Structures are given as structure tokens and as C-alpha cells.
Glucose-6-phosphate 1-dehydrogenase (Maritimibacter harenae), 481 residues
Amino acid sequence: MVSRVIPVDPFDLVIFGGTGDLARRKILPGLYRRYYDGQMPEEARIIGAARSEMDADGFRDFVRGALDEFVTKRHDKKMVDAFLAKLDYVAVDAKGTGGWDALAKTMRDGVVKAYYFSVGPALFGDIADRLHEHGITDDDARIVVEKPFGHNLETARALNATLAAHFDETQIYRIDHYLGKETVQNLMAVRFGNMLFEPLWNAQYVDHIQITVSETVGVGGRGEYYDKSGAMRDMVQNHLMQLLCLTAMEPPSRYDPDAVRDEKLKVIRALETTGHDDIVRGQYKSREESYLEDVDNPGSITESFIAMKVRIANWRWNGTPFYLRTGKRMKERVSEIVVRFKEPPHSIFEEDTGQSANELTIRLQPNEGMDLTVTIKEPGPGGMRLIDVPLDMTFAEALGEEAADVPDAYERLIMDVIRGNQTLFMRGDEVEAAWAWTDPIIEDWTRREDRPYPYEPGSTGPEEAMILMHRDRRRWRELRA
């Protein structure tokens, strides 16, 4: 396989929160890898902006340490030095006036201007105001904002209004790194690029669909934030919702930002209200480790796990349930979409032959790839015995070593910002529609004072999540990395 690297136009990228954890772990190492692969032009510049008082050399030392820690492959001293030469730094006060004139003088004309808001949402408005007041942006400037996009519908609307005061919707890039994953994009390629699947992608042939994002880690150092959000706000409302939309949406008229996002929005608006009986919430708990201790709140009723049955009220999916599952401190770290097809309407084989239904599994992590389970005859002379075997397309095995080293999601998405391509970014009305569906569910929990079920760390979640599936005579796919 030959990988094509298409360079982007010259740019000035300002990273607000340039000394923060996200910049250190993801953004700056990702930009270095894009430079190493030849996608970043020589005229490109990256400017760190934060409250920390340091000069450009200090910022370069900070970035060198980040690259030493988080870049293993492609770590070349000459390339690192050349990349660091592209860096600059300006100390700015997001809520005050300090540093903004210096930042304005640093920006160049005639290049793409992009501003990455790698800070808390509380500072989005202040930064947008300062950029406007100091004339640092133009009509082609782009801003990148990290989740959370609000805490509920009201705050999401307020945040959108704040950004819209100075920027057009075409300039706002709401980044969800899940949409930058190679397999997520391949989901669209498999559906809309192959005649094999799309005719079967509906309620007539699909029994149900499972979407799972499980993590082995706990809440870690995010306890204070996580306890105010929980799995519903932190994962379902954005990450799982996006995977649901891409799986369920109608074919867009073309691969175009608004065409794709229009179809995703239709899915969200077609979601039926999910009742209490179709939701299971959990908290990890054992003698050695407890969610309540990790968040330092012994009375917390915030969920670290959620499983739910979701229905889409449209012609394509009427009667086909979608099962969503996500949790902390689970058995395996797995993100996958499983499309379970119906069994043949009539079997010519005897009942004990072992015939079952086909499954298409799309693995986002780890080991990105896909496999389709098909039924074949078991080899041997023992009569007609059927077994299920996977047609496996693990990218690293099927496409060679280059596929095993695909760009990180942040790398791809930041380059899309420079190109001006919003296809893999969420639109404002899409975010608000997701909150409009999520809020009533959370309000119902609050009203009922609903308490999560305990589950053992390192398990597959509370037993009640299994019962949710067994009630429908179905089973969760086993968590395996």
C-alpha cells in the first residue's frame, strides 16, 4: 500500500492552553508527526499561548520534552530540531489585556489562521472576544473548540451563541477525536462504497446493533469533572452519539460537510425517548477500588457505566434496536460497532447443525479493523456441522506496516482544520439536538434520585446490563481486545 501525503497550505496555528496536558500529549506530538511525514509546509508556524511566563526557547524545551515522552516512531533529532524552529510563544491573559497586542503582531498576513481553544469552555467567550477586539482574526480564520460543548441544552445554546457573536458557523470546528479515527471513516466507506452492504443495512435484514466503548482505566485525575458529568454526558451524548449517527444515517447526496452533517442530524431528531426500563447505570466498586473514593464524594449517584436500548423512529430502522454501552474500569479497552444480521428466514439444515446469524464488527480500538462472521461447513467427514468463522480485515495485517501506523485522530482533524474541511466536525444544531434528547433522560434520573448499580472493577459492568439484553433474548458481544 502506498500512502499519499497531501501538504496543506502555509498556516499560523495558535494553541491557547499550549502548555496544558492535551497539547503536551496529543496536539503537539501530532503536529510533529505531520511535519515528519511532509504534510506541513516549511512556512507553517505554531504559536503556544498560555498564562505561563516563558519565552520561545522555554516553550521549545517544553515541547521537546513532550516529543521525547509521547513520540516513539519517527523520533529523529534533526527533524525534531527543525520542527521546534517553527514554534513561538506568547504569554496571554485570556480574561485580561496582557499579551494580546504581542500576539497580534506575531500573526502573519496571507496564511491560514487557526486558533485552537485547548482550554476549559468557561474561557471560550473571553478568548473569542479578545481575538475580535484586537483584530487578530479575518473572515477566513478558524477556531477549534474542545468538548464538553456545554453541560446541557441551555449551556450548549449559550456557548454556541457566544462563539457565533464573532465567528460564522463555517469558521467553528467542534472537535470530537472519535470522528478522526481511521475506522470511523471506513464505516462510511464500507457502507456507501460497497454494494454488498447498503442494501442489507436496514430493519428488514439487521436484527440489532451494538455500540460499545469500554475503558480499563477509572476516572483518574478527572474525578471532580467526571462526577459532575458522568458517562451519559462524558461519552454517550457525544462519542457514542456520533458513532450511532454514522451507523444509522441515510446516504448523503455527496461526501460534503453539510450533506453528511444534515443526515446525522436527522438521526438524532428521529431518536425516540428512552424510558427508565431501557437504561442501566452503574458505578465500579470493590474493597480495593471505588468510584466514590476516586471522586472523593461518598454520596455520589453519578454513573461510571451506562447501557441503554435506543430506538430510531424512521422507515429504515423501525423495529431494530440499538444497544449502547460504555463504562470505566471494564474488563477490556474496546471500542467497536457490531451489526448483527437476522438469521435466514428458513433453514434447510437440522436444528443441531449450529447455524447462526452473520455479524459485522467494526473495531475502532485496539487493532483497528473489521471482520465479518460467516457460516461455513466444519471441515471433516462428520456430517453437516456448521461453524462461524471471521473474514478478518485487521488493517495492520491486510494493508501492511503503513496501515499499522495510521495518523492519530488529532493529526487528521487538525490538518482538516487547515484545509477548511468540516466534514468530521460537529455543527452547532447537531450538538443542540443531542442535548435535547439527553437532558430529559438525566432529568428523570434526578427526579427519581436513581442510584447506579455497583459492578466489580475489571468486569463487563453490572449484571442488570446483561438482563437488559437477555430480556430481548439477545447477548452483549464479549469484550475482547
